[in-house]
Write a structure and sequence with these properties.
The protein has one domain: Aldolase class I (TIM Barrel, Alpha-Beta Barrel). The chain contains 9 helices and 8 strands.
Amino acid sequence: MTVLTGLKSRLRLARLGLVTDRAGEADWADFCRAVFRAGVDLLLIDQSDLDRSKLSQAVQQAARAGLGRGRIVGLRQGDPTEGPADLVHLSRRGPTPDSAPGQPWLGLSAEAPDELEAALADPRAAYVTVGPWRGPGPGDDGSGPDLSRLAARLAPPADPASPPWFATGGVSWDDREAIWAAGARRVILRRDVLRAPDPVARAAAWADWLRQAWRADQTLSDYRRAVRWAEGSGR
């Protein structure tokens, strides 16, 4: 299968994202290759402690690791006016600058219904994260289920015209069926993968589960074909 080169198409077909703070470690390049092979589509580096030079190097290493696989590398909580990444995920509490030629695509966060509606309607948004699925307290289910159901109504995942959106925030392996039932078809993970005894194996388990779920859903099979057709026709 030919790898799609368009960032827009790759994001629409992405199912699994991972936020990591391992950039700069000695095994960083090997880690990136491993999680990309496992099925991670979108890798977001979340490290404000790295200087510009080290961050640039980390992004370049990650990009090379995903080369040929259509993977996406971005920064989380980064400055969209600086750095080498093609995609920056903005904090909902941070400034949202006006877009300009040469600036990276933006990921936007939504933690409330009004934020969700605004983010989905924002022409600068490459994708939107919806959550947190689970709050920080024991037994706290967060806003994720209700927000995911709202997002599924506002931006049906199988509609090629909908911006892609991901459930995120405290998501664990045991949540997968509930996430699917709430209408989410994509997830961005952090702790569930990075704190697993074998992070690569956990990422692979998520990727396999999502892949099978997508294949079993005829509307998503039609969606994938529509996205690929639009990519091939230049739309």
